[in-house]
Amino acid sequence: MINGERTIQRPLRWGMVGGGRTGQVGYKHRTGALRDGTYQLVAGAFDLDAARGRDFGMNLGVAEDRCYATYQDLIAGESTRADRVDVVSVATPNFTHYEITKALLEAGFHVICEKPLFFTVAECDEVAKLAADKGLIVGVTYGYSGHPMVHQMAAMVAKGMLGDIRIVDMEYTHGFNAGDDDSADAVKWRTNPATAGSTFVLGDIGTHLYYMSEVILPQLKIEKLLCDRKAFIPSRAPLEDHATVLTHYDNGARGRLWVSSVDAGNMGSQRYRFVGTKASVAWTETHPDQIVYQVQGEPERILHHGMPYLEDESLACDRMGALHTEGLGESWANIYLWIAQAIDAKMRGDEDFLKTHHYPGIEAGTEGVRWLENCVRSADAGAAWIDYA
C-alpha cells in the first residue's frame, strides 16, 4: 500500500510547460505530482499570455523569476541554475509536443508529456533515441492506468484466472461534443488537423483504451484491425468525433473498441471487459474501486479495492484502503510516482531497477501513436481490414 513515505532520494525539482489557469489538464498533473512529496513545482511557462502565466505561477507558489514567458525562456533560464529543474511536464496541445519534448531533452531535462505523444512513429523513434543517448526518461500521462483494480485485472490475466483470452471489449464515450460547439478553444484545436494531428477522439480518448489493453493484456498482439470513423458534426471533418475499431489478435481473440464524444447525455464513461475461456472481468471508470469477476458456472463476484484477497500487484498501488473510495486523483498520483521512481533510478544509474519497473514511458507513447497511424490508414481506406504495421 502506498502511504506517502519517501521512495526516492530527494524530491524532483519540477517545471511545467502549459497547464495554466485556462487549461483543462494542468490541475490533474499537479494533483498527481504533488501528492507524495516526490516533486516540487519550482518553475513553469504556464500560459501563452506571459502576464497571466506569471500571475498564475506565483499564485501556485513559484518564484516570479522562474515564471517564464515561453518554454524557450524556461530552458534558457533553468539551464544556468545550480538548482535547475530535473523534469518538465508538457501539458500543451498535441502539435507542440514533439518540438517542446525534443528541446527539453536536448537541454538535459527529463520529460513527462501528455498523450498522444507525437504525430508519427518516426518522431517517437527519433525522440526515443535522443532520450537514450542523453540518459533521460520520457514519461507519458496515461492517467487512468494507475487505478489499483486495473492492475488486479492484469494480475488475474497473467496468472491464468481467465484462461485464454477470447474477447476484448472497450469503450470510452461522452456527450460533451454532441452539439455544434466548435467555438470553444478546447474543441477548436482538437478538431483541427494542424494542431490535433490525424485524429480527434481516437487520439484524445481512444489512446487511453489502447494503453489500458496493453497493461492488462501485454501478451496479445494486434494482427489486423478495421477502423470506421465519422464526423457527425461536419465542421470537424476530416477528423472524427465517433469511431469503432475492430481487432484481430495473434491468439485468435477478437476485439471491439468504441470511442465517441457525441454520445448525447453520457457524462463520460470508460468500460472494459475481458473474456477468457474460464472467466471474465469487467471494470468501469464510474466504479473504479471494484471489478466484476464472472467464472463460468459460478455466482458473480464483485472484488473491491484494498481487500487482502486481491493480488499483490493491486494492493501495492492502493492508497486509501478498502473503506474509502479511490478516484482519478489517486490514479494520476500513481503515474507520477512511478515516473519519479524511474527518473530517480536513471539519475542514480540503477539500470537493473528500470528493467523491471512499470511506468508509461516512451515505448508506451510510441505504441499509442502506432495504433493511431493504423486506425487512420484503415479508415482512410474506407474502413478496410489492414495488416497491423
Task: Produce the secondary structure layout.
Blueprint: E1 12-18, H1 26-33, E2 39-45, H2 50-59, H3 71-79, E3 87-91, H4 97-106, E4 110-113, H5 121-134, E5 138-140, H6 148-158, E6 165-173, H7 185-190, H8 193-196, H9 201-216, E7 222-230, E8 242-249, E9 254-260, E10 269-276, E11 279-284, E12 290-295, E13 301-304, H10 312-315, H11 328-348, H12 351-356, H13 362-380, E14 386-387
Parallel strand pairs: 1-2, 1-3, 3-4, 4-5, 6-9
Antiparallel strand pairs: 6-10, 7-8, 7-14, 8-9, 10-11, 11-12, 12-13
Explained architecture:
Strands 13-12-11-10-6-9-8-7-14 form a 9-stranded mixed sheet. Strands 2-1-3-4-5 form a 5-stranded parallel sheet, with helices on both faces. It is globular and about 65 Å long. The model has no long low-confidence stretch (mean pLDDT 96). It folds into 2 domains: 158 residues, Rossmann fold, CATH 3.40.50.720; 197 residues, Dihydrodipicolinate Reductase, domain 2 (2-Layer Sandwich). With 389 residues, it is α/β, with parallel strands linked by helices. The two termini are 39 Å apart. Helices cover 35% and strands 22% of the residues. The chain is built from 13 helices and 14 strands. α9 crosses α13. A hairpin with a 5-residue loop joins β11 and β12. The longest helix has 21 residues.
